[in-house]
Give the backbone structure.
Amino acid sequence: MEIKTGDFRVWDEGSTIYFDGIMRLSGSEAYAPILDLMMNVLASGASTVTLNLTDLEFLNSSGINLLAKFTIETRRHPEVQLVVRGAQSVPWQSKSLRNLQKLHPSVTLLVD
Amino acid sequence: MATFGSADIMLGATDDISRIQLFDGPLEIGWHHCAMTADFVGELFAIRVGEASPDYREIRHSIGYLVNELIENAVKFRAPGIIAVEAAMRDGTFRVKVSNQVDRDTAARFQGLILEITDGDPGDLLIRRIEANAADPTYSGSGLGLLTLMSDYGARLAWVFNPSADGSRVFIETHAILPVVAPVAH
């Protein structure tokens, strides 16, 4: 499945969800289709789910809340390992991704 | 008048201020104006350190994130009227004030929110608020943007509330300061 606008693209390949571009949607309702895509991958039965954020250049706080909500959802699936892949060179990622580990200490955070 | 936060955060008369005003009528202020204006302000101030600077990307992004969050709040909660963005750089610190009008009830709710999000360590409060938000789908999530600014970006915030003459509206100024990496030279 793929969600695409002029600013960003989100899609899944196997149990990896890729994010690309700039996401600054107006709130939880606007982000709901993306959360649905993520929840479908979580429900697929994969033992590892990866969020690949390395090409997501900008995310507003509502989008950070989306990632946080999904992280909290994965706590209810202890059989699933959540891997979050980011880039140190993308400022929002170097500043805000550590919050996901505070919400769910077993998240594997790979920030290159 | 009611103020929240320290006076040293507030944009001063001696600052060399750049101003942008978003007018409701001709612009029909919408969501895309948040990002457009924030990107412009980020570029305007980051360009002063030069695109070749190792700090350029970081400064442009951090200012862009800060201004975007403040304008998003102004657009989301405003009563019809002008949204003004005033910004300056002083001693390596970016300073911004976003002004807009809200109705009286919104102002009262926002004051309550400010008391909650400034009562403790912003990093802890952010995590607690995210948890509360996830546990209750009806929870608005308000305040998360301001908490990420304080927790993840090291921004300091202050607010001024001024009721209109007839008491039906309240003028809100949100002030923020953000340490940026390098002092700025023209």
Notes: Chain B has a mean pLDDT of 91. Residues 104 and 166 of chain B are 11 Å apart (CA to CA). DSSP finds six helices and six strands in chain B.
